[in-house]
Amino acid sequence: MRCCDLKEAQVLVCKHCGFEVKVLKACESCSAEACEDITCCGDPMELKG
After folding, report:
1. pLDDT tens per residue across span 8-20
2. CA distance to 16, 42, 43, 48, per residue, from 4 (Å)
3. Quick one: fold of 1-49?
């Protein structure tokens, strides 16, 4: 998942270690071209649930 794809209150989780990140404020200013995957343990994090 990239920051420009996330909405407020969504939670990302690492499938390897279980680390979780909750979006408190959605991205408003970056362009899709500037975004990269949010990673943990070397792999992109996934939406929880």
Report:
1. 999 999 999 999 9
2. 23, 20, 18, 17
3. Rubrerythrin, domain 2 (2.20.28)
